[in-house]
Amino acid sequence: MKVLCILYDDPKEGMPKNSPLKNLPKLDKYPDGMTMPSPKGRDFIPGQLLGCVSGELGLRKFLEENGHEFIVTNSKDGEGCEADKHIVDADIVISQPFFPYYLTRQRIKIAKNLKMAITAGIGSDHVDLQAAIENNIDVVEVTFCNSRSVAEHIVMMILSMIRDYHNQHRIVNEGGWNIADAVKRSYDVEGMHIGTVAAGRIGLDALRKMKPFDVHLHYFDRHRLPKNVEKDLNLTFHESVESLVEICDVVTINCPLHPETENLFDEKLISKMKKGAYIVNTARGKICNREAVVEALKSGQLSGYAGDVWFPQPAPNDHIWRTMPNHGMTPHTSGTSLSAQARYADGVREILECFFEGSPIRNEYLIVQNGKLAGMGAHSYSKGSSTSGFEEAANYKK
Ligand code: NAD
Predict the structure, then answer these.
(1) Is residue 146 annotated as a catalytic residue, yes or no?
(2) The domain that contains 69 carries what CATH number?
(3) Which pLDDT does position 320 carry in this prediction?
(4) Which range marks the domain in which residue 151 is found?
(5) Is residue 329 part of a domain?
(6) Of 322, 349, 379, which residue is a domain's last?
(7) For the whole model, what pTM was predicted?
(8) Which atom of ligand 1 lies closest to the CA of 335?
(9) What is the residue with the minimal CA distance to atom 39 of ligand 1?
(10) Ligand 1 atom 21: the closest Cα is on which residue?
(11) Mutate to test the pocket of ligand 1, among 225, 254, 257, 363 (most ligand atoms within 8 A of CB)
(12) Which of 13, 92, 123, 220 is the Cys-Cys partner for 244 at CB 3.0 to 4.6 Å?
């Protein structure tokens, strides 16, 4: 079979010779009891850089020894890109949300042999799920592999925005010592109202991680959490997103991108937020309206916006979120720490092993199967497509 894999660029200075840490901590299972990805074999050392082209997700030996063709490329955007040349006869495509190959309806149409799209990570909105459903292409992701990595990033971003870390760090780098400038936007998080839109694996973990800061915790989700979890965390459940945003000082967004959540944080919803609130969005860029966020930061309706997700990706060099005031953006990195890479590389191999053997892929990994939403897809997504506008990714210049 032909496996097409789209990965992000290697480091500018080439692949690192050594890792900063000798070993990664060994984790036995996820907090809900789900087992870690469990492939039969592994051809990398956990902690190695795997998500870039030369890292190859540690898959080449396994695939070639089993007689498969393995194409790895970072050329994914614009007419004539490498990925488009290979999609026409690929059987399986692997892509990471950090550097997504937008598997649009047009691409699905020309991919005559395509059977499965694997997301090396979580969040399969870069695939036109409606087109996958209609063309009987299975879509799978490595559920839980980086959920807790993202929750750590969320906590980092909440603290760094509320305390105004970026500004203080910049002052030091510039050789300064103006304490008043450094603290004129700096607060304690203690006592604040923190709310998550969606309390799935990431949202719930972010709530758990924020609890020791003695804050008031809120959530909105289309599925209510068990009573004992609400009680343990002293959670306030909101029936609507409006009710949550009216009260919260910090709103963190943790739902998947699908037609119900696309453009959810538009000018109207942002205007209903508490004046001067902060948003942390590590879910997907398209859940927030690009222009509305910038306007709200300029007017002071929002005091800060941070996150690691943009639309499209890579974000064009002139994307207005790169230069808006009081932002704490990173590139899409929260779910691709070296720790997370080891888990999702294992997970992709587990999925491939199951696929080649004809044994079932874990239900938790399924998004679309046999022409309908399945597994986590049925729980967390709705039908439809959210890939429109992807072409702009070709405007990014290295
Ligand atoms: P999950 O499936 O465990 O949780 C998703 C939650 O969203 C579920 O509880 C679901 O009920 C809720 N939800 C779905 N639609 C909703 C709606 N319309 N309104 C309210 N709630 C809704 O997934 P997860 O592991 O928590 O990941 C969530 C999302 O985070 C992913 O789909 C992905 O987009 C994003 N993510 C980002 C990164 C990153 O690196 N930044 C990494 C992993 C995941």
Answers:
(1) yes
(2) 3.40.50.720
(3) 98
(4) 147-322
(5) no
(6) 322
(7) 0.98
(8) 40
(9) 335
(10) 221
(11) 254
(12) 220
